[in-house]
Design a protein that fits this description.
five-stranded mixed sheet, 16 strands, globular
């Protein structure tokens, strides 16, 4: 059964290099201007339902922009770029931050993660800071001058997360969704560089494979966003080498290693937080986390 969100007609065969995410700076429902500038838009109705709609331009229109008929979503970076927008943030202000009367929502953001994951799979786009990025990251990551853009780099529902971390957390989430999709199909996600084949089995029998699992200097690491989403942990802050997660209202600090835009934490620390033991099956390259049965 095909559970994809995006119809095949919305993703025509063409060479695309990256996905750039935005907010529309409009209302939570798109208007004619929004649909002219973005390939895909994520709306939210008053009742809270979210949906993805197609803009006026095909993604294929941006494979080459020499004819002037394309979705102009990012200054000097439209060729080869898919533009996806969250509808909202009309009247927003960067500093001091104000979301305005039409803030984007967590439900829209979660749908955005899935949409971009599907786009990366369809167009074989690797999840890196240069290929999956916020509009506000374009100038820094691609060295293409923009006009003070900072979208969509604040979460109105969680202002504890600094804008500088939004892009990396989004990439972690997208990669996690790609990994889940690959596992459900019995395949390895094709978009990450090859890693040693390792498998981690969690206490609830969830099996995780590469690329959500990686090995560095003999230590096994797990994708932070994937683990946090699975267990309902809240990622509060991240730095270049650490992450703080809240579990049942208690903060815990974990080591963090960022590779290709994805953040990983040591399996030994995950085991500690879960109260689980760790065992290693060398021949099968499998790490198992298990909790002792209560007597």
């Amino acid at each position: 059964m095909n559970t994809a969100l995006l119809p095949l007609a919305w993703t025509p065969p063409c060479a695309m290099q990256r996905v750039i995410i935005h907010w529309s700076e409009g209302r939570n429902l798109s208007n004619d201007t929004d649909r002219e500038h973005y390939h895909l838009l994520i709306e939210q109705a008053e009742a809270g339902q979210v949906r993805v709609i197609r803009g006026d331009h095909s993604i294929a229109d941006n494979a080459s922009t020499g004819d002037g008929d394309y979705a102009a979503h990012t200054r000097d970076c439209n060729t080869g770029s898919i533009g996806v927008a969250l509808c909202g943030m009309m009247g927003c202000q960067e500093s001091p931050f104000q979301a305005g009367p039409a803030p984007i929502t967590l439900a829209q953001w979660r749908l955005l993660e899935q949409v971009v994951a599907e786009l990366c799979q369809r167009y074989r786009i690797a999840v890196t800071p240069e290929t999956v990025l916020c509009h506000g990251e374009v100038q820094r990551n691609l060295n293409i001058r923009q006009r003070g853009k900072w979208d969509p780099m604040r979460w109105p529902w969680d202002l504890s997360v600094p804008g500088s971390q939004i892009g990396s957390q989004f990439r972690i989430a997208v990669q996690g969704r790609i990994s889940v999709a690959a596992m459900s199909k019995g395949a390895t996600a094709p978009i990450q560089p090859p890693t040693p084949t390792r498998r981690v089995i969690l206490p609830d029998s969830l099996v995780i494979d590469a690329p959500t699992v990686r090995v560095e200097d003999g230590e096994t690491w797990l994708g932070l966003r994937y683990i946090a989403d699975h267990y309902g942990w809240t990622i509060k802050t991240t730095t270049t080498n650490s992450a703080t997660v809240a579990i049942s209202g208690v903060d815990h600090t974990l080591e963090l290693d960022i590779d290709g835009g994805t953040g990983y934490v040591p399996v030994r620390q995950v085991a500690e937080l879960l109260g689980a033991s760790v065992s290693w099956d060398g021949p099968n390259k499998t790490v198992t986390l298990a909790k002792e049965l209560s007597q």
